[in-house]
Predict the 3D structure of the following.
Amino acid sequence: MAKGAVAVKVRMESSAGTGYRYYKKKNPKTQTEKLKMMKYDPWAVNEKTGKKGAHVLFEEKKMPPSKKN
């Protein structure tokens, strides 16, 4: 039986500076570069309309350490 690749959880942070985040899984064996993707940020201000909610670039950031007691 073949074993699957180990997926690593990564944090995608908004480049708009709102602090909004997405969490995704990534295969480190096939995806060696940092992820960058356009996603919806509900807190970002749209330049055209001036209202909240816009598609902005999200970049992969380091995950914070887990809290184990």
